[in-house]
Amino acid sequence: MDRPQALLARRYVAIGGRGPEDVVADARGRVLTGVEDGRILRLDGLTDPEAVRVETLADTGGRPLGLELLPDDGLLVCDAERGLLRVDLADGTVRVLADSVAGEPLRGGSNVVALSDGSVYFTVFSLRYSIDQWIGDIVEHTGTGRLLRLAPGADSPEILLDGLQFANGLAPSADESFLVIAETGARRLTRYWLTGPKAGRGECFVDDLPGMPDNLWRGGPDGPIWVALAGPRVAPLELLHQASPAVRQAAARVAVHMPFRPTGTIGAMAFDDDGAVVYHLAARGSSYRMATSVCEAAGHLVLGSVWERGIALCEPPVPK
């Protein structure tokens, strides 16, 4: 891949909560995110960082991760503890859309998108590890991530794709013919075809990413698919992934009890629908760590993080 541009932070904005894991932007340049204590927040006034307003819109009662804005003033939320939710942004009402799949409780929801036909697609990162022990899945390399679909009017989702390595971010192609899924544990983006002769099949979209991909975001069909790189590739981890399941399981049991501090190596990339790189930005030694999401809003490239207590406003990329 081309040499990356520098990912330059303009300002850090505290939000009064930890872990804004996903960030999405609305048409007015406001940013929505969910934090560790269950609140859904909206940040307004990003054009003047000195006057940013943080408003609490709702409380899911769980751990909100991926978000998807709807055209009817609704918000879809993948809650790692409660399942797939819908929040009414006008009054903060939270409704459960799905809390089980295949007869089992739905846990580990990660990211979600809604398509024009009313279908909702979302990912589950692991069947074995909870959000507070996510590193166990990365170490064990369980391959228990899933892509699910909730059809219009359905009460329960269907499993479309399983065997994914920590299924995470999700974004549609411009024509909604396929979805792109971030597999954090494999450092790749996977394409799942929705239409055409390959419908129902998954294949590699972009492989060997320079870091671990997390959430995906697309501001509209004319824009690229953005992916946040939460951390660098880790050679010892990749060697461990080649070991036996017993060795990986033992390593994971240790990992979930060890203190964790992310590195200062983060990045953001953007791709077109052919998988070509549109932008590649990276930072080493960043004081803002573990960038798990990225979106464009109010003239900034906005980063979210499952680790930090705020968002980062960065310089937008220089067009090629």
Mean pLDDT: 95
The CATH architecture:
6 Propeller
Largest sheet: 5 strands, mixed
Would you list the SSEs in sequence order as H and E? EEEEEEEEEEEEEEHEEEEEEEEHHEEEEE
Task: Give the end-to-end Cα distance, rounded to a whole number of Å.
Answer: 14 Å
Structural class: mainly beta
Molecular shape: globular
Radius of gyration over alpha carbons? Answer: 18 Å
CATH superfamily: TolB, C-terminal domain
Protein name: SMP-30/gluconolactonase/LRE family protein
Pfam family, one: Str_synth
Keywords: Glycoprotein, Phosphoprotein
Family: Belongs to the strictosidine synthase family.
Overview of the molecule:
By secondary structure, this protein is mainly β. It has one domain: Neuraminidase. The chain is 8% helix and 46% strand. It is built from three helices and 27 strands. It has helices spanning 134-140, 235-240, 245-255, and strands spanning 5-6, 9-14, 23-25, 31-34, 39-44, 53-59, 64-69, 74-79, 83-88, 94-98, 100-101, 104-105, 109-114, 120-124, 145-150, 158-164, 167-172, 178-183, 188-193, 202-206, 211-217, 225-232, 266-271, 277-283, 291-297, 300-305, 310-314. Strands 1-24-23-22-21 form a five-stranded mixed sheet, with no helix packed on it. A four-stranded antiparallel sheet has the order 2-27-26-25, with no helix packed on it. Strand 17 (167-172) and strand 18 (178-183) form a beta hairpin. It is globular. The mean pLDDT is 95. It holds the Pfam family SSL_N.
